[in-house]
Amino acid sequence: MQKIQIPTFIRILFVLLLIITIAFIMILGKKLLVPLMLAGLLSMLLTPLCEKLEKWKVPETVSALLSLLSGIIIVGAIIMLVILQIKGVSQDLGNVGQRVDEFFASVDQFFSVYLGIHLGLENGINKEQVVNVLQSGNESMPQLLLSAIGSLTGLVFTPVFIFFMLIYRRHLTHFLVQLFKNHNQREVKREVLHIRRMVQGYIIGLLKVMAILAVLNTGALYILGIKHALFFGLFAAILNVIPYLGPFLGAILPFSYAMLTSDSMLSPFIIIILFAIIQLIESNFLTPKIVGSNVNLNAFITLLGLLLGGAVWGIAGMIVIIPSLAILRRIFELSDSTKPFAFLLAEEKNNIFTKNPSK
């Protein structure tokens, strides 16, 4: 029987239509898919604790519930700590108008004394407009941050999905085995376990790096005498979960705060320098040693994934896209026909973005 040859442009058109359809479904199903994706990743993180409790003869349902509650308590404690710190920051910025005047005056004085240039900043800038913008930003800062946190943690379905995924994790594994019944069952189970451990290693490693960064950031800000160093250090460490963009955003907040509150004009710029040094330590030592090559995605795919994830699902999309692409890369490696796509996603060993390039 002669095989039907499908023209190349038809296959390309089919792939494009498939991509458009998937993107359309992702946009329409955001309210369901985002908590489902987050639950899938977090359930993998809580699985070892659940298995440990089951080994201690704790019933499966109770083990899943205790694992879920432990995760909720930890996340809730971090959120409460951030909220309490936000209130203190807002109170310190209450008299922001006077601080802006002082800042402009100090800038003008610096240029006059050291460079012999008079900028006339105290007269050349519409301070009322600047103050209004800053004051409105000050009033809305807690609401904006709480809104961002709420978009990630206020998803009521996420804990429910995590609970059921922990209970039915073996059932889901058997489903995948039956789905790939033409393959060796042991091999399928081994790959499922490998993917789970890969995601666990990525998330746990990321949490360790965040904890170290929180200590380093807080210590650097405390030495400089910046108030609320714990808040700014912790906030910058949390933002580090977003590759490339997170560290930059994390440094902006303490820099802006120091510009308005610090007596020295050098403090804001020292903050940028110290954060840059800490980021170099993170990217060249901490992440390669702790997180390792769990995701193994090249820089271009990572950046493209962040942009697409942010465009479709916002902050949650930027967080889940990296481990999701890593899982997709691993799945592509299982078949000879899809290995080229795995190669496209993976990091090459010899380029400037590789953490430990081979010599």
TrEMBL record:
<keyword id="KW-1133">Transmembrane helix</keyword>
<keyword id="KW-0812">Transmembrane</keyword>
<feature type="transmembrane region" description="Helical">
    <location>
        <begin position="199"/>
        <end position="224"/>
    </location>
</feature>
<keyword id="KW-0472">Membrane</keyword>
<feature type="transmembrane region" description="Helical">
    <location>
        <begin position="144"/>
        <end position="168"/>
    </location>
</feature>
<feature type="transmembrane region" description="Helical">
    <location>
        <begin position="9"/>
        <end position="27"/>
    </location>
</feature>
<dbReference type="GO" id="GO:0005886">
    <property type="term" value="C:plasma membrane"/>
</dbReference>
<feature type="transmembrane region" description="Helical">
    <location>
        <begin position="62"/>
        <end position="86"/>
    </location>
</feature>
<comment type="similarity">
    <text>Belongs to the autoinducer-2 exporter (AI-2E) (TC 2.A.86) family.</text>
</comment>
<dbReference type="GO" id="GO:0055085">
    <property type="term" value="P:transmembrane transport"/>
</dbReference>
<feature type="transmembrane region" description="Helical">
    <location>
        <begin position="230"/>
        <end position="253"/>
    </location>
</feature>
<feature type="transmembrane region" description="Helical">
    <location>
        <begin position="301"/>
        <end position="328"/>
    </location>
</feature>
<keyword id="KW-0813">Transport</keyword>
<feature type="transmembrane region" description="Helical">
    <location>
        <begin position="265"/>
        <end position="281"/>
    </location>
</feature>
<keyword id="KW-1003">Cell membrane</keyword>
<protein>
    <submittedName>
        <fullName>AI-2E family transporter</fullName>
    </submittedName>
</protein>
<feature type="transmembrane region" description="Helical">
    <location>
        <begin position="33"/>
        <end position="50"/>
    </location>
</feature>
<dbReference type="InterPro" id="IPR002549">
    <property type="entry name" value="AI-2E-like"/>
</dbReference>
<dbReference type="Pfam" id="PF01594">
    <property type="entry name" value="AI-2E_transport"/>
</dbReference>
